[in-house]
Design goal:
The protein has 325 residues and is an alpha/beta fold. The chain has 7 helices and 15 strands. The chain has a 6-stranded mixed β-sheet, with no helix packed on it. β7 (181-187) and β8 (190-196) form a beta hairpin. The relative contact order is 0.17.
């Protein structure tokens, strides 16, 4: 290598040896973003978020598994599994393929019982005729659930769309609808009770008809209640039936549907502003709020995936007395 090339970026020190010299930093041109570039970036970001929320997350079903400890659960019901599906809202934004996928998920679970906690359609978006047709289509798809034990309640949208029409569609497909009603679930010579209360937002909930005195506080016969709007539990907490209820399954809130970082849910419906999603204990009652699979208002879900929940019933653990040595 030529001497000049070898020492191009070096300088001699006192001993005559060469050391590398730091080159002056290259200054980059200071070019601030223009308003057009900022707007373009914002548009691209908003478009990407809309695509993700509308096409990815809205169709990305989350399968949630939970063990439920129930006091007085008969041994025959130990390990019984329940699938909960809620807030379908077929044909506003929920496509039939998404409900078919949900049904396939449930069939792969092979649950012992399936509970449907309301809002099969969306009211006042389509015409009355098209909404009724959507209810029948929804019921037809739900009839593909292989589990023979399937029960339903109505939600506020079902009542507004036409409680009689939606109930007829569902029950015509051999899925009983409980409106302030109850029935026994029997297994291995034992039984528990399943109850369904009318929608607290637009219906006429009647706790005394839903859980009459005859089934309250029966030894080793706990009650599971379906109640579409979860905030109604605050009213039930002051009613005598609350001491009989082991578990309440709700929906209605969609978990917030669009939940922004640091801000939370953009919108929450009346009857679903306190207990938004997940697990709660209210006056001794266990409550689970399912996020549902549908969307209303806007065809988006963000930070709030659609949900199917699989519960496994377990007997409450006996308290171990403290023993001093």
């Amino acid at each position: 290598m030529p001497h000049d090339a070898a020492h191009k970026n070096t300088v001699p020190n006192r001993e005559g040896r060469y050391t590398y010299a730091m080159e002056a930093p290259v200054s980059l041109p200071n070019t601030p973003l223009t308003r057009r570039q900022v707007l373009r970036t914002m548009v691209y970001g908003a478009g990407g978020m809309a695509f993700y929320s509308g096409e990815v997350e809205r169709h990305w079903i989350d399968i949630v598994h939970r063990d439920i400890r129930i006091s007085g659960l008969p041994p025959a019901f130990e390990g019984m599994t329940i699938a909960q599906l809620s807030d379908i809202h077929l044909d506003e934004y929920t496509e039939p393929f998404l409900l078919r996928e949900a049904v396939d998920h449930i069939n792969r679970m092979q649950p012992d019982m399936v509970l449907l906690t309301g809002d099969y359609v969306t009211a006042e978006v389509l015409s009355k005729k098209l909404t009724t047709e959507a209810a029948w289509h929804c019921a037809s798809l739900l009839s593909k659930i292989a589990c023979p034990l399937k029960y339903a309640i109505l939600g506020n949208h079902d009542i507004l769309a036409g409680a009689h029409e939606v109930t007829e569609a569902i029950e015509s497909h051999k899925i009983p609808v409980l409106r302030n009603g109850f029935l026994p679930i029997e297994r291995g010579g034992s039984r528990i009770w399943l109850a369904g209360i009318d929608d607290p937002v637009l219906g006429h909930p009647d706790p005394d008809r839903t859980i009459p005195v005859s089934i309250r506080n029966q030894q080793n016969e706990p009650v599971i209640l379906m109640c579409h709007a979860p905030d109604f539990l605050d009213a039930l907490a002051t009613h005598p039936i609350s001491r009989s209820i082991a578990l309440v399954l709700s929906g209605h809130t969609h978990g917030g549907q669009v939940r922004l970082p640091f801000l939370g849910a953009v919108h929450l419906p009346p009857g679903g502003r306190k207990y938004i999603e997940g697990w709660f204990t209210v006056a001794g009652m266990q409550l689970y709020v399912n996020r549902g699979i549908g969307a209303v208002g806007v065809p988006f879900r963000f930070n709030c995936r659609p949900e199917i929940t699989r519960f496994r019933l377990r007997a409450e653990k006996a308290a171990v007395p403290y023993m001093q040595s």
